[in-house]
Amino acid sequence: YQRRVRESIIVPECTLSHSSRQMEATTKVKRSVQTYGRKKTAVAVAYITDGKGLIKVNGCPLKLVQPEILRYKVYEPMLLLGKETFSSIDIRIRVKGGGYTSQIYAIRQAIAKGIIAWTQKYIDEASKNTLKEILVTYDRSLLVADPRRCEPKKFGGPGARARFQKSYR
């Protein structure tokens, strides 16, 4: 009896699979890549799609990134790889955590890793290797995250390593 009940629950193939295939054929596939960059506790997520060269950080244009002195750190991947690389894509970046310097370094890493991933996925492996070589020779931290973290405080002192002053009387 149990076996008959289970068999009756199974639904035979219907036209749903056919209609879903038609929907896939009619809708254009959106090309996108999502990468992240990290520095200390700051995490930046870059979402790269087809576009016309738009780059935004938390909804604001790249030229409004503060502080102004560190803005050129964010521009480094663009200056190294050239305008042609960025002219056909849009980059949207969300960044959270850390201080403003850590966020800047996380943003530049997310952009650099995103371009490499986009080139590998949608262009070709040879051009990806040339871009990667350019970035690594300039600064390895553009592609490789810095593993250093803040060391936790221990007992017997004011910080992670420093101890309270010893007194004999």
Defining traits:
169 residues; alpha+beta; five-stranded mixed beta sheet; 43% helix; 18% strand; disordered N terminus
Overall pLDDT: 85
Cα shape: elongated
SSE class? alpha+beta
Q: What is the CA-CA span between the terminal residues?
A: 89 Å
State the total count of DSSP E strands.
5
Biggest pleated-sheet summary: 5 strands, mixed
* Neighbour order of strands in the largest sheet: 1-2-5-3-4
Q: From N to C, what is the helix and strand string?
A: HHEEEEHHEHH
* SS strand fraction: 15-25%
Query: Treating each run of at least 4 consecutive H or I residues as one helix, how many helices?
Result: 6
Residue runs with pLDDT of under 50 for 5 or more positions: 1-17
The Cα radius of gyration reads: 25 Å
How would you characterize this protein structure?
The chain is 43% helix and 18% strand. With 169 residues, the protein is α+β, with helices and mostly antiparallel strands. Strand 3 and strand 4 form a beta hairpin.
Task: Put the structure in a nutshell.
The chain has 169 residues and is an alpha+beta fold. It is 43% helix and 18% strand. Strands 1-2-5-3-4 form a five-stranded mixed β-sheet.
Give the SSE layout.
Elements: H1 2-9, H2 16-26, E1 32-39, E2 42-50, E3 55-57, E4 60-61, H3 71-81, H4 83-86, E5 89-96, H5 100-123, H6 125-138
Parallel strand pairs: 3-5
Antiparallel strand pairs: 1-2, 2-5, 3-4
Helix pairs in contact: 3-5, 5-6
